[in-house]
Every structure is written in structure tokens, then in C-alpha cells.
Amino acid sequence: MQGKIPSFVKLPSNKRFNFKPRYYNAQKEELEGRIARAKRELAAEEAGLTDPESLKNKLSESWRVNHRRRVNQKANMRVAMIAAILFVIFYFYFLA
Predict the structure, then answer these.
(1) Distance between CA 90 and CA 84 in Å, rounded?
(2) How is the chain classified by DSSP, letter by letter?
(3) Which of 23, 54, 71, 74 could form a cystine bridge with 41, CB 3.0-4.6 A?
(4) pLDDT exceeding 90 applies to what percent of the chain?
(5) Band of the pLDDT at 79, cuts 50, 70, 90?
């Protein structure tokens, strides 16, 4: 049977943390926001009112879609230009 030896110096014990990891799903948050906006818009339509916030949301959503489309077009054009330049370089290197 082992007993504790009494001591005048108190050693620090391990600290315990209560950490709860959180998960953030951006797509889910965006979907919930769009659903809430759609419900507000439907309620405003049924009441016969025009909601300035719904107009603002529609404009920002259309801008976001158009911006994304323009960025994709620029990226595709850049890839096509690089491919064309590489094709010309290889053509002159192997056939010239």
C-alpha cells in the first residue's frame, strides 16, 4: 500500500479545457439567407408592397452572378491564350 508523501511545495496540475469545436457551412448559411429573403419577398408581394431591401438583394445577387461570369470568361480567355502561345512555340520548335 503506497501513500502520498506530504510536501510543502504544491506542483501545478494539468489544466483542462472545455473546447467544443464548431463547424461553419457557408453554403448552408447562404441557402438559409436566400430562403428567408424569398419568404419576405412573398409576404411583401401578397401584401402588395414593394420591399426596398428585396430590390437591393436582387440587384446584389444579379451583380454577383454577372461578376462571377465575367471572371470566368476572363480566366477562360487567359487559358486559351496561353494554350495558343504554347502551341505556336511547340510548332516552331518541332517543325522549324
Answers:
(1) 10
(2) ---PPP-SSPPPPPP----------HHHHHHHHHHHHHHHHHHHHHHT---HHHHHHHHHHHHHHHHHHHHHHHHHHHHHHHHHHHHHHHHHHHH-
(3) 54
(4) 27
(5) very high
Amino acid identity at 92: F
Other beta carbons less than 10 A from residue 88's beta carbon = 10
CA 6 to chain centroid, in Å, comes to 57
CA angle 50, 51, 52 (to 5 degrees): 115
b/e for 15-32, b at 16 or more Cβ within 10 A? eeeeeeeeeeeeeeeeee
* C-alpha span between 30 and 57 (Å, rounded): 13
- Residue 7 — very low, low, confident or very high, per pLDDT cuts 50/70/90? confident
